TrEMBL record:
The organism of origin for this protein: Winogradskyella echinorum
TM annotation in the entry: none
Keyword Signal: yes
Signal peptide bounds: 1-19
InterPro entries recorded: AB_hydrolase_fold, Esterase-like, Mycobacterial_A85_antigen, TPR-like_helical_dom_sf
Keywords: Signal
Protein name: Esterase
Organism lineage string: Bacteria, Pseudomonadati, Bacteroidota, Flavobacteriia, Flavobacteriales
Domain of life, per lineage: Bacteria
Amino acid sequence: MRKAILIVLTCVFYLSTHAQVSYEEIPSERLNSVRKLKIKLPQGYDPESEIKYPVIVVFDADYLFEPVAGQVDFQTYFDDMPSSIVVGIMQGGEREYDSHYEALTGLPMDSGLRFHEFISNELLPYIDKKYNTSKFRVAVGHDIMGSFINSYLFQEKPLFQAYVSISPDFVGSLRNFVSKRLAVIEEDIFYYMATSEKDIPEIRENILSTNALINEVENQNITYYFDDFEGETHYTLVTGAIARSFDKIFEIYNPLREKELEEKVFNYEGTLDNYLIDRYKRIEKLFGITKEISEVELEKVAKVAEQREDYKSLNKLGKLANKLFPETMLGTYYIAHSAEMLGKIKKAKKLYESALVLNDATNIDKDYIAAKIEELTLALVVDVDDEELEDLEELEEEENEEN
Protein backbone atom coordinates (compact mmCIF):
# COMPACT_ATOMS: atom_id res chain seq x y z
CA MET A 1 0.00 0.00 0.00
CA ARG A 2 2.79 2.41 0.98
CA LYS A 3 4.65 1.60 -2.24
CA ALA A 4 1.51 2.34 -4.27
CA ILE A 5 1.09 5.68 -2.53
CA LEU A 6 4.71 6.62 -3.28
CA ILE A 7 4.26 5.71 -6.95
CA VAL A 8 1.13 7.89 -7.17
CA LEU A 9 2.90 10.78 -5.44
CA THR A 10 5.88 10.46 -7.77
CA CYS A 11 3.57 10.68 -10.81
CA VAL A 12 1.80 13.70 -9.34
CA PHE A 13 5.10 15.47 -8.65
CA TYR A 14 6.36 14.68 -12.16
CA LEU A 15 3.24 16.12 -13.78
CA SER A 16 3.23 19.23 -11.58
CA THR A 17 6.94 19.75 -12.21
CA HIS A 18 6.44 19.53 -15.97
CA ALA A 19 3.58 22.04 -15.81
CA GLN A 20 5.54 24.60 -13.77
CA VAL A 21 8.74 24.65 -15.85
CA SER A 22 9.54 27.74 -17.89
CA TYR A 23 12.04 27.99 -20.72
CA GLU A 24 14.38 30.96 -21.04
CA GLU A 25 17.28 31.99 -23.21
CA ILE A 26 20.38 33.82 -22.04
CA PRO A 27 22.86 35.44 -24.44
CA SER A 28 26.49 34.77 -23.55
CA GLU A 29 29.47 36.90 -24.51
CA ARG A 30 31.84 34.24 -23.21
CA LEU A 31 30.28 31.54 -25.40
CA ASN A 32 29.34 33.87 -28.25
CA SER A 33 25.96 32.14 -28.40
CA VAL A 34 22.54 31.94 -26.78
CA ARG A 35 21.95 29.21 -24.22
CA LYS A 36 18.59 27.67 -23.35
CA LEU A 37 17.57 27.19 -19.74
CA LYS A 38 14.88 25.24 -17.94
CA ILE A 39 13.76 26.97 -14.77
CA LYS A 40 11.39 25.74 -12.10
CA LEU A 41 10.34 28.16 -9.37
CA PRO A 42 8.95 27.08 -5.98
CA GLN A 43 5.20 26.68 -5.72
CA GLY A 44 3.63 30.00 -4.73
CA TYR A 45 6.78 31.94 -5.65
CA ASP A 46 6.20 35.69 -5.22
CA PRO A 47 8.79 38.05 -6.74
CA GLU A 48 7.67 40.79 -4.34
CA SER A 49 8.27 38.60 -1.28
CA GLU A 50 11.41 38.84 0.86
CA ILE A 51 11.67 35.04 1.03
CA LYS A 52 14.96 33.78 -0.42
CA TYR A 53 15.50 30.39 -2.08
CA PRO A 54 18.57 28.17 -2.60
CA VAL A 55 19.53 27.65 -6.24
CA ILE A 56 20.14 24.18 -7.67
CA VAL A 57 22.04 24.28 -10.97
CA VAL A 58 21.57 21.16 -13.10
CA PHE A 59 24.13 20.42 -15.80
CA ASP A 60 23.01 18.18 -18.68
CA ALA A 61 19.46 19.41 -18.10
CA ASP A 62 18.38 17.67 -21.32
CA TYR A 63 17.99 14.47 -19.30
CA LEU A 64 18.87 15.37 -15.69
CA PHE A 65 16.50 18.27 -15.05
CA GLU A 66 13.26 16.33 -14.51
CA PRO A 67 14.72 13.84 -11.99
CA VAL A 68 16.19 16.73 -9.97
CA ALA A 69 13.09 18.95 -10.13
CA GLY A 70 10.83 16.02 -9.27
CA GLN A 71 12.96 15.12 -6.25
CA VAL A 72 12.91 18.74 -5.07
CA ASP A 73 9.10 18.72 -5.27
CA PHE A 74 8.94 15.43 -3.40
CA GLN A 75 11.22 16.46 -0.54
CA THR A 76 9.81 19.97 -0.12
CA TYR A 77 6.31 18.46 0.09
CA PHE A 78 7.43 16.64 3.25
CA ASP A 79 9.47 19.64 4.47
CA ASP A 80 12.67 17.61 4.16
CA MET A 81 14.42 20.41 2.30
CA PRO A 82 13.74 24.10 1.64
CA SER A 83 11.82 25.19 -1.44
CA SER A 84 14.41 25.90 -4.12
CA ILE A 85 14.88 27.40 -7.55
CA VAL A 86 16.00 24.73 -10.03
CA VAL A 87 18.00 25.97 -13.03
CA GLY A 88 18.79 23.52 -15.82
CA ILE A 89 21.37 24.22 -18.55
CA MET A 90 20.46 22.67 -21.89
CA GLN A 91 23.76 21.48 -23.33
CA GLY A 92 22.75 19.04 -26.06
CA GLY A 93 25.35 18.95 -28.81
CA GLU A 94 27.54 21.49 -26.98
CA ARG A 95 28.34 19.07 -24.15
CA GLU A 96 31.72 18.03 -25.59
CA TYR A 97 32.81 21.66 -26.01
CA ASP A 98 31.47 22.63 -22.58
CA SER A 99 33.48 19.92 -20.86
CA HIS A 100 36.77 20.39 -22.76
CA TYR A 101 39.65 19.91 -20.33
CA GLU A 102 43.42 20.03 -20.02
CA ALA A 103 44.70 16.46 -20.27
CA LEU A 104 47.17 16.63 -17.38
CA THR A 105 45.11 18.43 -14.71
CA GLY A 106 41.60 17.52 -15.85
CA LEU A 107 40.54 21.16 -15.31
CA PRO A 108 38.63 23.14 -17.98
CA MET A 109 40.54 24.80 -20.79
CA ASP A 110 39.62 26.67 -24.00
CA SER A 111 35.89 26.09 -24.68
CA GLY A 112 35.56 24.32 -21.31
CA LEU A 113 37.01 27.32 -19.50
CA ARG A 114 34.66 29.65 -21.37
CA PHE A 115 31.70 27.50 -20.28
CA HIS A 116 33.05 27.53 -16.72
CA GLU A 117 33.13 31.34 -16.80
CA PHE A 118 29.68 31.51 -18.41
CA ILE A 119 28.25 29.82 -15.32
CA SER A 120 30.09 31.95 -12.77
CA ASN A 121 30.14 35.32 -14.55
CA GLU A 122 26.91 35.32 -16.56
CA LEU A 123 24.39 32.64 -15.61
CA LEU A 124 24.39 32.94 -11.81
CA PRO A 125 24.46 36.77 -11.77
CA TYR A 126 21.48 36.64 -14.18
CA ILE A 127 19.57 34.27 -11.88
CA ASP A 128 20.46 36.28 -8.76
CA LYS A 129 19.27 39.51 -10.38
CA LYS A 130 16.00 38.10 -11.71
CA TYR A 131 14.92 35.86 -8.81
CA ASN A 132 14.88 35.87 -5.00
CA THR A 133 17.95 33.73 -4.38
CA SER A 134 19.76 32.87 -1.17
CA LYS A 135 23.52 32.43 -0.92
CA PHE A 136 23.27 28.61 -0.97
CA ARG A 137 23.94 26.99 -4.33
CA VAL A 138 24.02 23.33 -5.33
CA ALA A 139 25.71 21.95 -8.46
CA VAL A 140 24.44 18.65 -9.87
CA GLY A 141 26.39 16.83 -12.55
CA HIS A 142 26.64 13.31 -14.00
CA ASP A 143 29.44 11.58 -15.90
CA ILE A 144 31.80 14.14 -17.46
CA MET A 145 29.78 17.04 -16.02
CA GLY A 146 29.95 15.31 -12.64
CA SER A 147 33.70 15.76 -12.99
CA PHE A 148 33.41 19.28 -14.45
CA ILE A 149 31.53 20.76 -11.46
CA ASN A 150 34.62 20.11 -9.31
CA SER A 151 36.39 22.95 -11.11
CA TYR A 152 34.34 25.43 -9.04
CA LEU A 153 36.01 24.14 -5.88
CA PHE A 154 39.27 25.67 -7.06
CA GLN A 155 38.05 29.25 -7.05
CA GLU A 156 39.33 31.34 -4.15
CA LYS A 157 35.77 31.30 -2.83
CA PRO A 158 33.98 28.18 -4.16
CA LEU A 159 31.03 29.14 -6.35
CA PHE A 160 28.80 26.37 -4.98
CA GLN A 161 28.28 25.33 -1.39
CA ALA A 162 27.15 21.79 -2.29
CA TYR A 163 28.40 19.42 -5.02
CA VAL A 164 26.44 16.39 -6.24
CA SER A 165 28.91 14.45 -8.35
CA ILE A 166 27.10 11.42 -9.77
CA SER A 167 29.35 8.77 -11.31
CA PRO A 168 31.90 11.44 -12.28
CA ASP A 169 34.22 10.61 -15.16
CA PHE A 170 37.42 11.90 -13.55
CA VAL A 171 40.08 12.81 -16.06
CA GLY A 172 43.75 13.65 -15.71
CA SER A 173 44.87 14.21 -12.12
CA LEU A 174 41.61 15.85 -11.05
CA ARG A 175 40.72 13.14 -8.54
CA ASN A 176 43.97 13.83 -6.68
CA PHE A 177 43.46 17.58 -6.81
CA VAL A 178 39.91 17.32 -5.42
CA SER A 179 40.98 15.64 -2.19
CA LYS A 180 43.85 18.11 -1.72
CA ARG A 181 41.52 21.06 -2.29
CA LEU A 182 38.89 19.73 0.11
CA ALA A 183 41.60 19.41 2.76
CA VAL A 184 42.25 23.17 2.83
CA ILE A 185 38.88 24.79 2.07
CA GLU A 186 37.92 27.24 4.80
CA GLU A 187 34.20 27.46 4.06
CA ASP A 188 31.35 25.03 4.80
CA ILE A 189 31.08 22.67 1.83
CA PHE A 190 28.83 19.65 1.25
CA TYR A 191 30.33 17.10 -1.11
CA TYR A 192 28.47 14.04 -2.38
CA MET A 193 29.79 11.39 -4.75
CA ALA A 194 28.27 8.15 -5.98
CA THR A 195 29.10 5.11 -8.07
CA SER A 196 27.45 1.73 -8.49
CA GLU A 197 28.19 -1.97 -8.71
CA LYS A 198 27.62 -2.03 -12.49
CA ASP A 199 29.14 1.38 -13.21
CA ILE A 200 31.54 1.71 -16.16
CA PRO A 201 34.66 -0.13 -14.85
CA GLU A 202 37.22 2.62 -15.49
CA ILE A 203 34.95 5.32 -14.05
CA ARG A 204 34.16 3.19 -11.02
CA GLU A 205 37.83 2.48 -10.33
CA ASN A 206 38.69 6.20 -10.39
CA ILE A 207 35.74 7.04 -8.14
CA LEU A 208 36.70 4.40 -5.57
CA SER A 209 40.28 5.66 -5.44
CA THR A 210 39.02 9.24 -5.11
CA ASN A 211 36.72 8.20 -2.28
CA ALA A 212 39.68 6.63 -0.47
CA LEU A 213 41.63 9.89 -0.78
CA ILE A 214 38.73 12.07 0.41
CA ASN A 215 38.15 9.77 3.39
CA GLU A 216 41.63 10.70 4.60
CA VAL A 217 40.79 14.41 4.57
CA GLU A 218 40.48 15.96 8.03
CA ASN A 219 38.67 19.25 7.57
CA GLN A 220 35.73 20.16 9.80
CA ASN A 221 34.43 22.49 7.08
CA ILE A 222 33.74 19.55 4.74
CA THR A 223 30.68 17.35 5.05
CA TYR A 224 31.30 14.35 2.80
CA TYR A 225 28.90 11.58 1.74
CA PHE A 226 29.54 8.62 -0.53
CA ASP A 227 27.24 5.94 -1.97
CA ASP A 228 28.06 2.74 -3.81
CA PHE A 229 24.74 1.43 -5.12
CA GLU A 230 24.20 -2.29 -5.54
CA GLY A 231 22.77 -3.59 -8.82
CA GLU A 232 22.63 -0.15 -10.49
CA THR A 233 24.34 0.91 -13.70
CA HIS A 234 26.05 4.15 -14.74
CA TYR A 235 22.61 5.52 -15.66
CA THR A 236 20.13 3.88 -13.32
CA LEU A 237 21.98 5.11 -10.22
CA VAL A 238 21.04 8.71 -11.04
CA THR A 239 17.62 8.89 -9.36
CA GLY A 240 18.80 7.16 -6.19
CA ALA A 241 21.87 9.39 -6.00
CA ILE A 242 19.80 12.57 -6.35
CA ALA A 243 17.45 11.48 -3.57
CA ARG A 244 20.27 10.43 -1.24
CA SER A 245 22.36 13.53 -1.87
CA PHE A 246 19.52 15.96 -1.15
CA ASP A 247 18.55 13.99 1.93
CA LYS A 248 22.11 14.31 3.24
CA ILE A 249 22.80 17.90 2.18
CA PHE A 250 19.60 19.17 3.77
CA GLU A 251 19.62 16.78 6.74
CA ILE A 252 19.77 19.57 9.32
CA TYR A 253 16.76 21.23 7.66
CA ASN A 254 14.64 18.12 8.29
CA PRO A 255 12.14 18.16 11.15
CA LEU A 256 13.56 16.69 14.36
CA ARG A 257 13.59 12.91 14.06
CA GLU A 258 13.94 10.16 16.66
CA LYS A 259 17.59 9.50 15.80
CA GLU A 260 18.58 13.12 16.41
CA LEU A 261 16.51 13.27 19.60
CA GLU A 262 18.17 10.12 20.95
CA GLU A 263 21.74 10.76 19.82
CA LYS A 264 22.08 14.53 20.03
CA VAL A 265 19.27 16.18 21.98
CA PHE A 266 19.18 13.75 24.92
CA ASN A 267 22.97 13.94 25.35
CA TYR A 268 23.23 17.70 24.82
CA GLU A 269 25.31 19.46 27.46
CA GLY A 270 23.38 22.56 28.42
CA THR A 271 19.75 23.61 28.43
CA LEU A 272 17.74 22.26 25.51
CA ASP A 273 16.37 25.64 24.44
CA ASN A 274 19.93 26.44 23.32
CA TYR A 275 20.03 23.25 21.23
CA LEU A 276 16.95 24.36 19.30
CA ILE A 277 18.13 27.96 18.91
CA ASP A 278 21.60 26.89 17.71
CA ARG A 279 20.07 24.37 15.29
CA TYR A 280 18.01 27.01 13.54
CA LYS A 281 20.82 29.55 13.53
CA ARG A 282 22.90 26.94 11.67
CA ILE A 283 20.11 26.45 9.13
CA GLU A 284 20.05 30.20 8.50
CA LYS A 285 23.84 30.39 8.27
CA LEU A 286 24.15 27.45 5.88
CA PHE A 287 21.22 28.00 3.56
CA GLY A 288 20.67 31.74 3.86
CA ILE A 289 17.02 31.21 4.76
CA THR A 290 14.94 31.57 7.91
CA LYS A 291 13.04 28.57 9.24
CA GLU A 292 10.83 29.00 12.27
CA ILE A 293 10.82 26.60 15.23
CA SER A 294 7.48 24.77 15.25
CA GLU A 295 5.24 23.85 18.18
CA VAL A 296 5.73 20.19 17.27
CA GLU A 297 9.50 20.45 17.62
CA LEU A 298 9.21 22.30 20.92
CA GLU A 299 7.00 19.49 22.18
CA LYS A 300 9.51 16.83 21.08
CA VAL A 301 12.37 18.58 22.88
CA ALA A 302 10.21 19.17 25.97
CA LYS A 303 9.54 15.42 26.16
CA VAL A 304 13.29 14.81 26.10
CA ALA A 305 13.70 17.35 28.93
CA GLU A 306 11.16 15.38 30.98
CA GLN A 307 12.87 12.08 30.16
CA ARG A 308 16.15 13.35 31.55
CA GLU A 309 14.34 15.12 34.43
CA ASP A 310 15.81 18.40 33.27
CA TYR A 311 13.26 20.88 34.62
CA LYS A 312 15.57 23.85 34.09
CA SER A 313 15.46 23.10 30.36
CA LEU A 314 11.68 22.68 30.53
CA ASN A 315 11.36 26.11 32.15
CA LYS A 316 13.57 27.72 29.48
CA LEU A 317 11.69 25.95 26.69
CA GLY A 318 8.55 27.50 28.17
CA LYS A 319 10.09 30.96 27.98
CA LEU A 320 11.16 30.29 24.38
CA ALA A 321 7.64 29.11 23.52
CA ASN A 322 6.20 32.31 25.04
CA LYS A 323 8.39 34.35 22.67
CA LEU A 324 7.47 32.29 19.62
CA PHE A 325 3.79 31.63 20.38
CA PRO A 326 2.68 34.31 22.89
CA GLU A 327 -1.03 33.77 22.14
CA THR A 328 -1.01 30.09 23.13
CA MET A 329 -0.71 28.40 26.52
CA LEU A 330 2.22 26.21 25.44
CA GLY A 331 4.99 28.25 27.10
CA THR A 332 3.06 28.89 30.31
CA TYR A 333 2.24 25.20 30.52
CA TYR A 334 5.93 24.20 30.36
CA ILE A 335 6.91 26.76 33.01
CA ALA A 336 4.05 25.62 35.26
CA HIS A 337 4.88 21.94 34.70
CA SER A 338 8.52 22.64 35.57
CA ALA A 339 7.47 24.30 38.85
CA GLU A 340 5.15 21.39 39.60
CA MET A 341 7.90 18.82 39.08
CA LEU A 342 10.19 20.80 41.39
CA GLY A 343 7.54 20.68 44.12
CA LYS A 344 6.52 24.35 43.85
CA ILE A 345 2.82 23.49 43.88
CA LYS A 346 1.37 26.92 44.73
CA LYS A 347 3.45 28.60 42.00
CA ALA A 348 2.50 25.92 39.49
CA LYS A 349 -1.20 26.30 40.29
CA LYS A 350 -1.08 30.07 39.73
CA LEU A 351 0.73 29.57 36.44
CA TYR A 352 -1.81 27.00 35.25
CA GLU A 353 -4.61 29.44 36.17
CA SER A 354 -2.95 32.22 34.15
CA ALA A 355 -2.85 29.89 31.12
CA LEU A 356 -6.65 29.68 30.98
CA VAL A 357 -6.90 33.12 29.32
CA LEU A 358 -4.63 32.00 26.44
CA ASN A 359 -5.44 30.06 23.29
CA ASP A 360 -5.15 26.28 23.12
CA ALA A 361 -1.84 24.85 21.89
CA THR A 362 -1.54 21.92 19.47
CA ASN A 363 -1.82 19.22 22.13
CA ILE A 364 -2.81 21.22 25.23
CA ASP A 365 -6.27 22.69 25.76
CA LYS A 366 -8.22 24.44 28.52
CA ASP A 367 -9.83 21.20 29.70
CA TYR A 368 -6.43 19.67 30.36
CA ILE A 369 -5.23 22.81 32.19
CA ALA A 370 -8.44 22.87 34.28
CA ALA A 371 -7.81 19.25 35.28
CA LYS A 372 -4.25 20.15 36.33
CA ILE A 373 -5.56 23.02 38.48
CA GLU A 374 -8.08 20.72 40.16
CA GLU A 375 -5.35 18.15 40.79
CA LEU A 376 -3.02 20.71 42.39
CA THR A 377 -5.84 22.25 44.44
CA LEU A 378 -6.48 18.84 45.96
CA ALA A 379 -2.75 18.36 46.55
CA LEU A 380 -2.58 21.67 48.42
CA VAL A 381 -5.54 20.67 50.62
CA VAL A 382 -3.85 17.37 51.43
CA ASP A 383 -0.65 19.18 52.28
CA VAL A 384 -2.50 21.49 54.68
CA ASP A 385 -4.27 18.53 56.34
CA ASP A 386 -0.93 16.77 56.73
CA GLU A 387 0.58 19.83 58.38
CA GLU A 388 -2.35 20.13 60.81
CA LEU A 389 -2.06 16.42 61.63
CA GLU A 390 1.64 16.78 62.36
CA ASP A 391 0.90 19.75 64.70
CA LEU A 392 -1.71 17.72 66.62
CA GLU A 393 0.65 14.78 66.99
CA GLU A 394 3.35 17.07 68.41
CA LEU A 395 0.89 18.51 70.97
CA GLU A 396 -0.18 15.03 72.08
CA GLU A 397 3.44 13.98 72.53
CA GLU A 398 4.12 17.08 74.68
CA GLU A 399 1.07 16.38 76.87
CA ASN A 400 2.11 12.75 77.36
CA GLU A 401 5.57 13.81 78.41
CA GLU A 402 4.13 16.26 80.99
CA ASN A 403 1.86 13.57 82.44
